[in-house]
């Protein structure tokens, strides 16, 4: 096996998995003073569950009372608001409404409100159908709602990228296209076998998402949980939809499902989804036409004018659900190992809170570190619609992607960052190129040229 | 910047409109084009079948595009390349982004000529994984003819419109070997020799078939195709080429105050191709989706003449009569008729399914026009506009 070209022969902490949780943990531990390596088997971060979600920053109003999940969501929410300005991360302050479309749902609103208040979300209020209509004039008539002003929309890709970037500019190592395949704990340290060679670290944090149980089994010999992937499909409407709504439209949950959400995105679109479909496959997140049509109809039922808005994108994500609802935490003091597993449907919100939790657990397990005195802060380039974009700046040069107005220099610059894109998905998530209504009809050949030799797999070969 | 007429889009249609305006003596005519070069889609159609009517010889797309640009420049048209129109506003105000920053262009009249594109995989709701290698013909041709790159070697081609032939041509000329052609109909949509053409090349054609799912983690690995009455097949491939199903590139209009027609997907226009905001006009493929480059160019030339006349006149005030179609007609262009119009191009219709019957145009219970019609989807169907003149009640068009 090849020797890894690493800066340090023994890290304090090896984090396995570059999803949103692993990226947040890498940031926290680096800022707290640990020597960190983040190992990701994909060609880029966000290769698993974290690449496809609803992009909502939740208040935790409906989370299980007293749970670790609620605690991490609220801590994560607060930290996101605290750091987003210096990291230049967007926040679309939409508020959310749990809407009652029928009497049965109306009867549940009191309970939802009580839970919200119990969870400390004190500004949640009941509003009647007229107030819903006044707030959202394009929405079909409803009977009322619980309004949760603190539910917001964020950029689900720039956030984790910003977290890992902070880690890397402050000394953390990021190993991509590297899979952890085994390892042993002996003499106070882990010897990990990876597809890129051996590596040593005192502590291991398992943030392997959809493979968290497998990683646990391969490193500890047994897994304390098993992942049951739950697929969610989405459909994204073109930007004309954004003027039709502001507030996130949440359904009243039933026993069976949480139902579909209608929400704006940080990029000026509207999305509808997700579904909740159990499957065994941990890799393929497939969409299907019949389900997409159901989602489309559901969106049009909520906002009839969406019928005239073109569909820009379809996608699906896999939630790393397990056989139980709650987060699956395993702390092995003797083997200096921590699993943050089963982070099913709230990980984008909770990631920064989970990272605080993980740092506390590692300290309790004996990791001795002291925070960096003056960490470097690296803000993200803005790709959201909430602040001026590069194409609006003076001398921005050539625009490459016309639907999303991405400049050539934005594409060039992203390859020159601390965590450059490794595959086309990563390039799209960092710049929005090819993410618009034409899905690459006009610009993908240009993007292929600009990304030649940089992406795995490449977009094209010489013809 | 203040101009007489601003033309958004420098394809065959926009360049045509600009030339005609200059010929009619209009002083400041500016074409705003977001690409580094004007010429539109033909710039990357490196195959023949362009230019017969305009230049009297068969040309490849790129030489046709260059020839059109030369003619426009000679006629005194100002062409601003790398200028993207990002918003349309009332009173002919255009928000434009250029490499230096941004500017506002104010025009007495605006011609929208932003063309059409093939419908994306997402808009078609084609399910499955999201691997690399799924694209339209337009993108494939840009890879090959503009960048010298090949995005795949063994694609499956979906669709049998005229543009599907471009895609087969492009593939075969560049060592790309289509694995199969999949089409929903029971024969090819295009009038061309497609019925036997692929067979000559040994490419299997699956009629009455549909791509159900695209498979592959990094790159495309296969497509699952369901065939009516014959079960499903899995075809190994490394790309999926979704051809045809053109839709107008009308996003600027959709994001603005201008009314877009749900059926055509383009701006709603009257018979002179004036939009709901009388300062704005539309031409070329933006009106309806695909036509040939030559057709679009002539459409632009004719529009330019009418816009030149319009500049000398007051805004129209007369009553308007709506034009609507019933199934199996997909759309009509125009969607309304203004009173007191001297000359105007033919009304254009398209079908969603093959028909054989009588085309009837009615208004207020009276038939204005009837003729036998045997046609198929994606074929041009025209109704001479003079038959509709004078109608006071809404006009309806149907098959009897
Ligand atoms: C449909 C849907 C909607 C959602 N909506 C929201 C929302 O609106 N708000 C919200 O807060 N949350 C939401 N979530 C939840 C959120 O997306 C997840 O909780 C979160 O992405 C989980 O992240 P993770 O880091 O735990 O896992 P992952 O993102 O799966 O990361 C694990 C990483 O580990 C890597 N890996 C695995 N095994 C190995 C190995 N052996 N070696 C190296 N690397 C390995 C994988 O490649 C992967 O990149 C949603 C989720 C889904 C699916
Ligand atoms: C793959 C393919 C193969 C074809 N093959 C043939 C063929 O063999 N023979 C034939 O006759 N026809 C062919 N056609 C059709 C032909 O290309 C079109 O009919 C013709 O280009 C339409 O002209 P247009 O001016 O309406 O639009 P386009 O050619 O599409 O031009 C529109 C222009 O507007 C510009 N634009 C769009 N939005 C903006 C904006 N916001 N700001 C500034 N500029 C903007 C675009 O960059 C573009 O240059 C083919 C089309 C395709 C896609």
UniProtKB/TrEMBL annotation, chain A:
Q: Which domain of life is it from?
A: Bacteria
What positions does the domain FAD dependent oxidoreductase occupy?
12-359
Supply one GO molecular-function term.
oxidoreductase activity
**One Pfam annotation, family name?**
DAO
Sorted keywords for this record are:
Oxidoreductase
State the organism of origin.
Answer: Devosia riboflavina
The protein's matches in CDD domains, at most eight in alphabetical order, are given as: GlpA-like_Fer2_BFD-like
Q: Does the keyword Iron apply?
A: no
Q: What is this protein called?
A: FAD-dependent oxidoreductase
From TrEMBL, chain B:
Asked if the record carries the keyword Oxidoreductase, the reply is yes
Q: Which domain of life is it from?
A: Bacteria
Q: Which InterPro entries match?
A: FAD/NAD-bd_sf, FAD/NAD-binding_dom, Metab_Enz_Cyan_OpOx_G3PDH
Start and end residues of each FAD/NAD(P)-binding domain: 4-300
Query: Keyword Oxidoreductase, does the record have it?
Result: yes
User: What are the protein's UniProt keywords?
Assistant: Oxidoreductase
Task: Give GO MF terms, alphabetically.
Answer: oxidoreductase activity
Q: What is this protein called?
A: Pyridine nucleotide-disulfide oxidoreductase
**Organism taxonomic ancestry:** Bacteria, Pseudomonadati, Pseudomonadota, Alphaproteobacteria, Hyphomicrobiales
């Amino acid at each position: 096996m090849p020797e890894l070209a690493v800066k340090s022969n023994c890290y304090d902490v090896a984090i396995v998995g570059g999803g949103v949780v692993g990226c947040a943990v890498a940031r926290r531990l680096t800022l707290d003073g640990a020597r960190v390596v983040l190992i990701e088997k994909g060609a880029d971060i966000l290769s698993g569950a974290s690449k496809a979600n609803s992009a909502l920053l939740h208040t935790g109003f409906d989370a299980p009372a007293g749970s670790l999940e609620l605690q991490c969501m609220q801590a994560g929410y607060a930290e996101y608001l605290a750091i987003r300005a210096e990291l230049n991360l967007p926040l679309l302050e939409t508020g959310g409404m749990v809407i009652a479309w029928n009497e049965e749902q109306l009867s549940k609103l009191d309970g939802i409100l009580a839970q919200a208040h119990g969870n400390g979300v004190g500004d949640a209020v009941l509003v009647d159908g007229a107030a819903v209509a006044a707030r959202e004039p394009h929405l079909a008539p409803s009977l009322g709602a619980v309004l949760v002003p603190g539910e917001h929309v964020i950029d689900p890709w720039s956030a984790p990228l910003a977290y890992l970037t902070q880690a890397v500019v402050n000394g953390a190592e990021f190993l991509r296209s590297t899979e952890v395949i085994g390892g042993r704990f002996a003499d106070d340290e882990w010897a990990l076998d990876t597809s890129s060679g051996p590596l040593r670290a005192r502590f291991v944090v398992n943030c392997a998402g959809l493979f968290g149980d497998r990683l646990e089994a391969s490193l500890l010999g047994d897994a304390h949980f098993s992942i049951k992937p739950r697929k969610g499909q989405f459909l994204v409407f073109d930007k004309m939809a954004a003027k039709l709504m502001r507030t996130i439209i949440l359904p009243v949950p039933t026993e069976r499902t949480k139902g579909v959400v209608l929400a704006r995105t940080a990029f000026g679109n509207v999305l509808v989804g997700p579904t909740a479909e159990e499957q065994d496959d941990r890799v393929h997140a497939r969409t299907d036409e019949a389900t997409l049509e159901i989602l489309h109809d559901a969106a049009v039922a909520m906002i009839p004018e969406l019928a005239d808005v073109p569909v820009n994108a379809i996608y699906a994500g896999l939630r790393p659900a397990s056989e139980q609802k709650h987060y699956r935490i395993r702390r092995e003091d003797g083997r200096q190992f921590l699993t943050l597993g089963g982070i099913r449907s709230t990980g984008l919100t909770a990631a920064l809170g989970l990272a605080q939790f993980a740092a506390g657990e590692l300290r309790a397990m004996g990791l001795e570190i002291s925070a960096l005195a003056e960490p470097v802060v690296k803000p993200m380039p803005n790709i959201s619609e909430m602040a001026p974009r590069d194409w609006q700046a003076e001398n921005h040069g050539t625009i490459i992607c016309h639907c999303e107005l991405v400049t050539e220099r934005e594409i060039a610059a992203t390859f020159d960052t601390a965590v450059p894109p490794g595959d086309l998905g990563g390039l799209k998530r960092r710049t929005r190129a090819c993410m618009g209504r034409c899905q690459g009809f006009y610009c993908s050949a240009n993007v292929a040229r600009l990304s030649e030799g940089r992406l795995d797999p490449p977009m094209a070969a010489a013809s | 910047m203040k101009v007489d007429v601003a033309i958004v889009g420098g394809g065959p249609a926009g360049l045509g409109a600009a030339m005609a305006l200059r010929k009619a003596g209009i002083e400041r005519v500016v074409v705003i084009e977001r690409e580094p070069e004007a010429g539109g889609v033909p710039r990357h159609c490196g195959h023949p079948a362009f230019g017969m009517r305009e230049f009297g010889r068969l040309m490849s797309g790129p030489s046709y595009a260059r020839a059109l640009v030369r003619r426009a420049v000679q006629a005194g048209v100002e062409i601003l390349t790398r200028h993207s129109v990002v918003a349309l506003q009332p009173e002919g105000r255009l928000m434009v982004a250029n490499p230096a920053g941004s500017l506002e262009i104010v025009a007495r009249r605006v011609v929208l000529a932003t063309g059409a594109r093939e419908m994306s995989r997402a808009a078609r709701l084609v399910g499955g994984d999201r691997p690399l290698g799924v694209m339209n013909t337009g993108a494939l041709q840009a890879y090959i003819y503009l960048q010298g790159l090949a995005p795949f070697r063994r694609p499956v081609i979906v669709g049998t419109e005229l543009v599907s032939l471009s895609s087969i041509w492009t593939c075969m000329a560049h060592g790309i070997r289509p694995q199969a052609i999949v089409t929903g109909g029971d024969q090819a949509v295009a009038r061309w020799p497609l019925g036997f053409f692929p067979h000559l090349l040994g490419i299997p054609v699956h009629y009455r078939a549909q791509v159900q799912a695209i498979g592959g983690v990094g790159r495309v690995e296969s497509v699952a195709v369901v065939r009516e009455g014959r079960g499903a097949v899995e075809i190994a491939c490394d790309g999926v080429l979704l051809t045809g199903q053109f839709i107008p590139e009308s996003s600027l209009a959709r994001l603005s105050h201008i009314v877009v027609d749900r059926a055509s997907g383009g701006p709603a226009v009257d018979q002179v191709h004036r939009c709901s905001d009388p300062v704005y006009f539309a031409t070329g493929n933006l009106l309806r989706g695909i036509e040939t480059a030559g057709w679009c160019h002539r459409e632009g030339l004719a529009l330019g003449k009418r816009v030149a006349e319009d500049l000398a006149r007051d805004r129209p005030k007369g009553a308007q009569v709506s034009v609507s179609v019933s199934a199996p007609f997909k759309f009509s262009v125009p969607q309304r008729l203004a009173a007191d119009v001297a000359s105007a191009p033919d009304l254009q219709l398209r079908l969603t399914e093959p028909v054989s019957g009588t085309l009837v145009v009615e208004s207020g219970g009276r038939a204005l026009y009837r003729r036998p019609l045997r046609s198929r989807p994606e074929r041009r169907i025209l109704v001479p506009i003079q038959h509709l003149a004078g109608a006071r009640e809404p006009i309806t068009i149907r098959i009897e």
